């Protein structure tokens, strides 16, 4: 049997197909430019020996429904999903679940309506996620569809961590609070870390660092999230590829008065022209590291990125009291020994002691990079949000007795 995982953008469908029950990945694909005359599908079929068969096609696709139709026909031809009835479920990544969704949820019309009501909280993401859900429900009517929310893992934050110190009516009337994102990744790596440490998730305290283009930190206490750096939106927290992260909230009013910028314009600047890109013109960490030697702005961007992460580690050590492990994941966290080393340097007295040889040479899905004697373990774990969504989808389908 098979399970499919879907992540929809406004004109794209990213998908993976997994075998069940072993969750081996069978295919991964991307359909882009939906709604245009040159929509294209690229798919990689994963062979058992670790090699791939790649294919790409171009043809007009009017909407996401036609996208799914195309995906199904390519998968049928490639004998990945020979018939729709082979699908035990379809898991959808949904960015914002608000306070309504604390766990993966089998989708019915009520769930669709609830996700729609959350659009004001995630106007950039939930509409595209919904587009995908509705098209998939129409194209695969008998197949259980499951929503897996980026926010769900952080629903365990205590009130003193999730409330902002603003008039309480803003929370009751407008749902203003910290939600946090990247939950599937923080959950996945925290489970992997516990297993690697030979402990139950309920007994470990971790600081998980998801450092990619978007970046966030979570404080995980006895297996549950108790604080995280992203907030009402994914804009809060760390310095990111193009997002500012934490700034003085009064900066908005000052700039709006000084420049005449509208709220929408300012929002765009803070989301897509700020962060590493705003500081040095580049948002790719590899390029920034390459240039940092002779380029003062690239060096500043790198310094700011690492400094902000270090500050959060310090504050989450205070939150957790005892930390078993620090976990690096995401494109930067998994691949950049330079960034890991700079973040951890100076934290030795807090028990974080990196072995630079191990740090420079680590590879594979999970690696320890701490010195043997370090009180806090430092791990590098390859995240796998898609496989985790597949696992949660199967679990939700079984739990619902479908
Ligand atoms: P997204 O949030 O889009 O999923 P990723 O998790 O793929 O992002 O991370 C993308 C980031 O990872 C980019 O800034 C990229 O430069 C960085 N990255 C990937 N490989 C390396 C590397 N070897 N060294 C430094 N940064 C890297």
Radius of gyration: 22 Å
Strand order, biggest sheet? 5-4-3-2-1-6-8-7
Overall average pLDDT? 96
Q: State the CATH class of the largest domain.
A: Alpha Beta
Please bin the fraction of helical residues. Answer: 25-40%
Question: According to CATH, what is the topology of the largest domain?
Answer: Nucleotidyltransferase, domain 5
Q: Distance between termini?
A: 14 Å
Number of helices: 15
- What would the principal axes of the Cα set say about the shape? globular
The CATH architecture assignment of the largest domain turns out to be: 2-Layer Sandwich
Low-confidence stretches: none
Number of strands: 14
| Biggest sheet details | 8 strands, mixed
Estimate nothing, just give the exact number of structural domains. Answer: 2
Structural class: alpha/beta
Instruction: List all distinct small molecules, including ions and cofactors, that are bound in this structure.
Output: adenosine-5'-diphosphate
Strand content: 15-25%
Secondary-structure element series:
EEEEEHEEHHEHHHEEEHHHHHEHHHEEH
What would CATH call the homologous superfamily of the largest domain? ATPase, nucleotide binding domain
How would you portray this structure in words?
It is a single chain. The chain is of the alpha/beta class. It folds into 2 domains: 2-149, Nucleotidyltransferase, domain 5; 199-385, ATPase, nucleotide binding domain (Nucleotidyltransferase, domain 5, 2-Layer Sandwich), CATH 3.30.420. 39% of the residues lie in helices and 21% in strands. It has 15 helices and 14 strands. The strands form 2 sheets. Strands 5-4-3-2-1-6-8-7 form an 8-stranded mixed beta sheet, with helices on both faces. It is globular, with a radius of gyration of 22 Å. The protein starts with a strand and ends with a helix. Adenosine-5'-diphosphate binds at residues 212-214, 241, 284-286, 289, 330-332, 335-336.
């Amino acid at each position: 049997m098979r399970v499919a995982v879907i992540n929809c953008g406004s004109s794209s469908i990213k998908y993976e197909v997994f075998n069940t029950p072993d969750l081996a990945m069978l295919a991964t694909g991307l359909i882009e430019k939906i709604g245009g005359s040159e929509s294209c599908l690229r798919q990689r079929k994963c062979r058992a020996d670790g090699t791939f068969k790649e294919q790409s096609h171009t043809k007009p696709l009017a909407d996401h429904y036609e996208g799914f139709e195309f995906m199904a026909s390519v998968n049928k031809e490639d004998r990945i999903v020979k018939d729709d009835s082979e699908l035990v479920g379809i898991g959808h990544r949904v960015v914002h679940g608000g306070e309504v969704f604390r766990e993966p949820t089998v989708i019915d019309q009520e769930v669709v309506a609830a996700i729609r009501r959350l659009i004001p909280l995630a106007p950039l993401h939930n509409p595209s996620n919904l587009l995908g859900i509705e098209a998939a429900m129409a194209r695969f009517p008998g197949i259980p569809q499951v929503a897996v929310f980026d926010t769900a893992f952080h629903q365990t934050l205590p009130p003193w961590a999730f409330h902002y110190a603003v008039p309480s009516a803003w929370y009751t009337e407008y749902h203003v609070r910290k939600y946090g994102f990247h939950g599937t990744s923080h959950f996945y790596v925290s489970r992997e870390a516990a297993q690697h440490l030979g402990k139950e998730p309920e007994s470990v305290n971790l600081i998980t660092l998801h450092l990619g283009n978007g970046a966030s930190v979570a404080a995980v206490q006895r297996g549950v999230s108790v604080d995280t750096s992203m907030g009402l939106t994914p804009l809060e927290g760390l310095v990111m590829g193009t997002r500012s992260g934490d700034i003085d909230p009064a900066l908005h009013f000052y700039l709006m008065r000084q420049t005449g910028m509208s709220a929408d314009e300012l929002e765009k600047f803070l989301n897509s022209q700020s962060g590493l890109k705003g500081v040095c013109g580049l948002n790719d960490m590899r390029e920034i590291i390459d240039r940092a030697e002779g380029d003062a702005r690239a060096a500043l961007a790198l310094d700011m990125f690492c400094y902000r992460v270090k500050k959060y580690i310090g504050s989450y050590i205070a939150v957790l009291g005892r930390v078993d492990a620090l976990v690096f994941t995401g494109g930067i966290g998994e691949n950049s020994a330079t960034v890991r080393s700079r973040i951890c340097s100076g934290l030795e007295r807090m028990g974080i002691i990196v072995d630079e040889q191990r740090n420079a040479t680590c590879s594979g899905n999970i690696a320890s990079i701490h010195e043997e004697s370090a009180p806090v373990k430092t791990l590098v774990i390859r995240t796998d949000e898609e496989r985790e969504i597949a696992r949660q989808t199967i679990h939700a389908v079984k739990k619902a007795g479908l």
